[in-house]
Design a protein that fits this description.
With 343 residues, this protein is α+β, with helices and mostly antiparallel strands. The chain is built from 8 helices and 17 strands. The strands form 5 sheets. Strands 1, 4, 5, 14, 15 and 16 form a 6-stranded mixed β-sheet that branches. The chain has a 5-stranded mixed β-sheet with strand order 8-17-13-9-10, sandwiched between helices.
């Protein structure tokens, strides 16, 4: 049963969503490229296809009919959003220790656990964002839920450097310019960001090519600073690098959300909560059953997204902080991403 003696589900949900937002901003999130989009449903509907160039307008003679244009190719996609969540138990011992203390102390304990469940949901969604961007595919097989599929990225948008940047005499600037040219040829626009790990940036900083480009009258540095790398990229019409090294623990294994041997071209980043900020795709947050329960007290416009409530059981006597969400990142235009293996 819901336990509302100290905090209501609506209050705890508001706290959890604020905690999730703070967690995302502090950790760094791929939500900058797949922003959050609340939907009052358990499915996401969007148009998938190539961004590409649209046909130009056509001249016509006076009094002639205006030519009919064709919209860019794409298909309407409907995809089921899976449920995701976690619950933590406030231990019997902690409850016994809390007897007789003020409600503020009990609330503080519940809020601490709420931050943990909000972070757990954020990490799980971030893992799926990483898979979507890196692999252009959906592959979930967990606790009886199975959903697979491909976001259909063009073959030329998954590449490997001719000479790995950790090898002898690599040409990273040539590689980056060539991949940017592929991106432009497909999409008709420049990439807005390069996402890479610190490991990749460190390898780039040690390449002979970038050391020479950063050379001054004082000589050639043995290691190029990130600031100098960004200046070289800008001078050659390339987007800035965004270092991304977030990790998550799935099961008993901790791993990088994005492989640390990749360089990824993406559109310019947007606010993670700007639902219409990019054509690449988005992270859809659906509406759970819990959110529509009268006991949760959520207004209809607030029902989509993460929902958290405190529950109490009698045998054993325990308080649980229970989180629930229905969410999935999707790529609407997979060719707005290009993934290159460089190490």
């Amino acid at each position: 049963m819901l336990w509302t003696d100290v905090v209501t589900p609506a209050e705890l949900t508001g706290y959890a969503r604020a905690a999730l937002e703070d967690y995302e901003r502090s950790k760094g999130t791929l939500g900058r490229w797949l922003p959050n989009r609340p939907v009052a449903d358990i499915v996401a509907r969007f148009i998938a296809g190539e961004a590409g160039l649209s046909p130009v307008a056509e001249y016509r003679s006076y009094d002639a009919e205006t030519p009919i244009g064709a919209l860019p190719g794409g298909k309407r996609v409907t995809i089921e959003l899976p449920p995701v969540g976690l619950k933590y138990r406030v231990s019997e011992y902690d409850q016994l220790r809390s007897r007789g203390v003020s409600d503020d102390k009990v609330l503080s304990s519940i809020e601490s656990v709420t931050r943990r469940v909000a972070g757990a949901v954020a990490d799980r969604i971030e893992v799926e964002r990483g898979k979507a961007i890196e692999n252009a595919a959906l592959n979930i097989n967990e606790n009886g839920f199975v959903q697979t599929g491909s976001w259909s990225r063009a073959a030329g948008h998954t590449v490997t450097a001719a000479t790995l940047w950790s090898g002898a005499s690599p040409k990273p600037l040539d590689d980056l310019q060539a991949w940017a040219d592929v991106y432009v040829a497909t999409n008709g626009e420049q990439p807005g960001a390069i996402v890479a790990s610190r490991k990749v940036v460190a390898a780039l900083a040690r390449t002979e090519e970038f050391r020479a480009l950063a050379a001054t009258t004082a000589g050639t540095p043995s290691l190029v600073s990130l600031e100098a790398i960004q200046a070289v990229l800008a001078a050659h019409g390339l987007p800035p690098i965004y270092i991304y090294d977030r990790q998550a623990k799935v099961g008993n294994a901790t791993s990088k959300v994005i492989s640390d041997n990749k360089v990824i071209f993406l559109p310019a980043p947007v606010d993670p909560f700007d639902a219409e900020g990019t054509d690449l795709g988005g992270t859809f947050w659906g509406q759970t059953l819990e959110s529509s329960e009268p006991d949760y007290g959520l207004e209809f416009e607030d029902q989509a997204g993460l929902v958290v409530g405190a529950w109490k059981t009698k045998d054993p006597i325990a308080v649980w902080v229970h989180s629930a969400a229905i969410a999935l990142p999707v790529l609407a235009n997979a060719n707005l991403s290009l993934v290159a293996t460089v190490l």
